[in-house]
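## Example record

The block below lists the input lines for one assembly entry, exactly as stored, with component labels intact.
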Amino acid sequence: MLNVSIMIVLFSYSQTIISGTVKDNRNRVLQNVSITIVGTYDGATSDSIGRFKIKTYEKGSFVIEAKMLGYKTVTQIINLDKDSIQLNFILKEEINELKAVTVTAGSFEAGDKKKAATVLTALDIYTTGGANADITSAAKTLPGAQQVGEQEGLFVRGGAGYETKQMIDGMVVNNPFYTGSPDIASRGRFSPSLFKGNIFSTGGYSALYGQALSSVLLLESIDLPERSEASASITSVFVGAGFQKLASNKKSSYGINYGYTNLLPYFSIVKQKPDYFTVPQYHTSEFNYRHRTKKRGMIKIFSSFNTGKLGLRNTDIDSLILKDAFALKNWNWYNNFSYRENLGKGWKMQLGFSFSANNDKINTTVQDTNNNPVTTNISYIDNKNFNLNHQNNLTIARTVIDKRISGISTIRFGAEYWNAYHKYVFNNYSSNYNDNYTSAFGEADLYLSNDIAIKAGGRLEHSSLISKTNFAPRLSMAYKTGKNAQMSIAFGEFYQTPELMQMMDNTGGIKKLGYTKATHYLINYIKNTALQTFRIEAYYKKYNNLVKTFPDTNISGNGYAQGIELFWRDKKTFNNIDYWISYSYLDTKRDFLNYPTSMQPTFATPHTLSIVTKTFVTKWKTGFNLTYNFATGRPYYNIVFNNGLNKFEINDEGKTIDYHNLGFSLNYLPNLGKQNAKTFIVLVASVTNVLNFNQVYGYRYSYNGLNKVAVTPPAKQFYFIGCFLSWGVDRSQDAINNNL
Amino acid sequence: MKQLLTAFCLLATTTIFSQSEKYVTTMSSTLQQFNDAKTNEDLTAVAQKFERIADVEKTQWLPYYYAALVKTTMCLSGKVSNIDAMADEANNLLTKAETLEQNNSEIYCVKSLIATAKMLVNPQARYMEYGAKINQYIEKAKAADSTNPRPYYIQASNLFNTPKQFGGGCDKSKPLAEKALELFNNFKPVSNIHPTWGKEATEKIINQCK
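Predicted C-alpha cells for the full assembly:
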C-alpha cells in the first residue's frame, strides 16, 4: 500500500484524467459500461447517468474500449498527452434472442426458451385439476377454446373441432384421439411426457403449418432423457410398465412402454348412463429411439401401436322401446421419424417422415328389449343398422431449411408431401379415396431491432382431390412497448381441404369443391415477468367457402368469429399458489352444411371462463389442484327438411343450461426428499365435476322431431386413483424445485 | 558476454518481478473492493476490474476466476435482470481460467455455483439438467483438492436452503458445515490473493443450526 502511495506522489504530475459519458444510439444513458484503456489495468464503469472517469499514468497512444453485454463494443484511439481528455461513447444495441421481442399474436408457448406466456408444460398438464393428464383437456383451460365435451378436439374461436390440427414435430397427426363412441369425447393418444414444449396457437400462425382453419397444437417431442429409468403404474382404469435406457455416453437412448386399460372394475362401481356390453379396453405400446449426432443434431424415432374395443347401448330415440347398440374395434399404428442437423454457416435442416394407419370397425344394431336385433320396417329406424370398416392411412414427408441471415434474423423454407388414403366399406359398398397434397412454404423472421420483429411468409398448397392450388400469405409483427411488455399484430389466410365426408355426394363420389378458407386478423398485448403474465387479445376471423350440403354439395357457406380474450397467470401474489384465469368472449355465426341461414353453431358460446389453481403443501408432501370451467349455454337446433318448400328449416331450437365443472386432483409423493429411496412413488387421486353439476352439451332429436334427448356425459363424475412408480430417477427433485 | 547475459537476466527478472508486484497489489486492492462491495454497481465495477487485469495478464487464472466469481455472486443475489446471460459470461470467463489452470478445485466450485444460478432461473424446467451438474462439480472439486473447504461449504449451504421435507435442512447441512469449518481452520491459501472465502458463511450455518 505504501508503495502505491509513493508512486502516486511521484507520478501525480503526469496523471491524465479521461472523462465522458456513454449513451446508446437513441441518446439514452448507459450504466455499467466497462471503459478500458486496452492493455492496462486502467478503466472505469459508467455510473447511473452514464458518466465515467479514468485516472491513468500511461503516456502515448492507446485504444480505449467501451463494452457492455448486449451492445456492440466500441473502440477509439486516443493520445494520452494532456491532463484531461473528454471522450464520449455511443453504443449500439446488439439484436439478441434474449432481449428481442417475440411474435406472440395468437400463440401460447411453453418451454424454457422464451418467457412468453409459459403454460402447458408436461408438468402443467399433469397438475391441472380435472384434466386427467390429457393435453387437450389442459388446453381447454386456455383462452380461445370452447368447453365442448360431447366430441373430441379443440373447438377454437368459433371453429369446428376438425379445424384444429395437432402436429408432432411439425407433422400432422391423423388420429390424435382414441376412436370413441358418439357423444362421448375420448382422450388424446399421446402422453404429455412425450413432449418438451407445446405451443397452442389460436390464430395467425406461421406459414410452416397449413390445413387448419382455426388453430394448431404444436407438440415438440423430447430429446434424450436425463437418465435411465424403469416405471410402472397401477390405477383404477389401467396398468402399465416401461423403461428408458440412456447409453452411458449419453448420446443415444431407447425405451419401450406398454399399457393395458380396462374399465370393467371402474364401471362396475360407478354407474354409467349407457349400457356397456363391451367395456372399453385398450392395449397401448410405444417404442422410441433417440440419437444425438456429432454436430449436436438429433435423430428421433417414435412408434406406437394401439388396439381398442368397446360396445354400448342407448335407448333408441325414435321408438323409446328399442335400443341402439354401437360396437367399435380399432387399431392404430403411428410412426414418426425426425432428423434435425446443423449444417454449419447458419444453416439448419429438419427432415421428417411420418406414417400412420388407423382402422375402425363399427357396427350399429337396433335391438329389442332382450338385446336381440330387430327389423321394424320403418326405414329411419332400420337405417341405423350398419357395418362400417374405415381404413385411414397418412404418409407425410417434410423438410424445413433454416438460414440465419444477419444477427438473429432468419429465413426458413421447406416443402411437404402428404398422401392420405381412405377406404370405406359401408355395409357391402366399398369406396377408396386418395389425396396427394403438396405444399411449399417460406418465411422470414426479421428483427429490425430488439424492439421490432416481423414474421412474413407464405404457403402454396395443392390437393389432388381438389385439383386447385392456393396461396396463403401470413404476416405478423411484434413491437416492444416497454419493459416486459409488447404488442403483436397478425394477419393470415388459411386454407383447409373439406372433410372427406362433407365432399361426398350421394353416390359416394367426390365433388372437386375447392378449399375452405379463413382469414385471421389479431392484435394482442402481453406483459410478463418471471412470475406473472397478463395477456389480452382481440381478433376477427372471416370464413369463406364453407361446405354447404344443400341444394347440392357446394362451397357457398361463410361465417365470421370475433372476440376478446384475457389471460392472467400469477405465481407471486399468493404464497406457494400458482393460478391462471382465462376468459374468452366470442361472437360467431356461420352458414354451413344444412344450416338454413347464418347462425351461431352448436359448438360455440359467447362466454367461457377457466380458473386453474395449484398448490403444493411441503409439510404433507402433497399437491392440490383445482380447476373451475364455466361456459354459457350453447344453442341447439332441430334442422329438418321441408319438402313443400324444398329447403331446410329450423323446426325447434333452444339453448342448453350453463356449463360448470369443478375438477380436483391431488398428488402425494411419500418418498419425497428421502435421498436414498430407490423407488419413487406418486399417488394421484382426482375427480371431475366435484359439485355434481348437471352438464348438458346439446340435444338430439327424434326423426319426427317430437322427442328430444339431452346429450350428457356418460356419468356425472369421473374418479381416478393411481399409483405411479419409477426407479432410477428421484423425481422428487422435480417436485422440490417446482415449489422453490 | 557472460556479464551482459547476467545483466539481461537480471533485468528480465526485475521487470517480471515488478509486473508481478503490480499484479499482486492490484489484485489485493480489487479483492478488498470486492469485500466492501454493497450494491450491484459496486460488484459490476469489481468484476470489470478483474476482467481488465485478466485481459492484460493473460497467463494468470485468478483474475478470470474472480471476475467469474463476482458475476456468479450477482446472479445468485437474484438482483440482476438477465441471469442467464450473466451466468454465461461467468462461464466463459471460467473456461478461460481453465485453459490456464486445469482440474482446479476452486474453479469447479464456481462452476457448481453457476449451475445453481442457472437452475434457479426456472427450477421446474431446468432441475434435471442443472441439478445433476451442481453436485457433479462439487464432487469434482472435492476430488481435485481434498483439503479445500469450499465444496463442503457449498454443499452445506445448498442443503441449508432446501426445505427439510425435501431432504434438506439443518440435520443434513450441519455435518457438512462442520466438516467445511474443520478444513477452513487448516486451510492455507497458496498466496494472499488465492481464494479464502466461505468461512464466515460456514460459521453462520453452524450457528443457525444450533
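Residues 7-17 of chain B have pLDDT under 50 and may be disordered. Chain B touches chain A through 40 residues (CB under 8 Å).
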